[in-house]
Amino acid sequence: MWNWRRRPERRLRRMPVSDLWHDWGGNATAVYSALDTVPVQSSGSRLALGGGVTVALNNRLDLYLSGTYQFAVGSTDGGKRNGITGRAGVRYVW
Question: Which SUPFAM superfamilies does the entry mention (predicted)?
Answer without folding.
Answer: Autotransporter
